[in-house]
Design a protein that fits this description.
It is built from three helices and no strands. About 5% of the residues have low confidence. It is about 75% helix and about 0% strand. It is mainly α.
């Protein structure tokens, strides 16, 4: 319904002519010429300056990639070294703790075993009566 109202208002104003949204024939021909030139340039390939600029960009990108790869290797080596250092420290501390605990336990156990052996093997102190010299005569 609004389309008919728009047509009626346009007709009432007396505007009869090309739609202002449509391109003109000159604009179409200019676009065709630009498009043909663009496609021909694409078929011709890059110029020497464009090739040199692309080679420079490619060389810089490869250098940057190599530098980034070297940095990442260094960082990975540092992380690995720090981790191994920490693990080595923990292993040494754990070994010392185990040795300390083992030596105290073992020493206490050895002392206890020695006392038990003494008790088992030592002869009891029997009191014997020793005769005096004047008793027997």
């Amino acid at each position: 319904m609004t389309d008919q109202a728009d047509k009626i208002s346009v007709d009432a104003e007396g505007v009869d002519g090309p739609d202002p949204l449509e391109p003109t024939q000159a604009e179409i021909e200019a676009w065709v010429a630009r498009e043909r030139a663009r496609r021909q340039a694409w078929l011709d390939g890059p110029t020497e300056e464009e090739r040199a600029a692309y080679a420079d960009r490619l060389r810089h990108r490869r250098l940057a990639d190599a530098f980034d790869e070297g940095e990442s290797r260094i960082q990975e080596g540092v992380r690995t070294g720090v981790r191994y250092g920490r693990e080595g420290q923990l292993a040494a501390e754990g070994a010392m703790t185990l040795l300390y605990r083992w030596s105290r336990r073992t020493m206490a156990e050895l002392i206890r075993a020695g006392r038990e052996w003494e008790e088992e093997t030592s002869l009891p102190n029997r009191r014997r009566r020793v005769p005096l010299d004047d008793e027997g005569s």
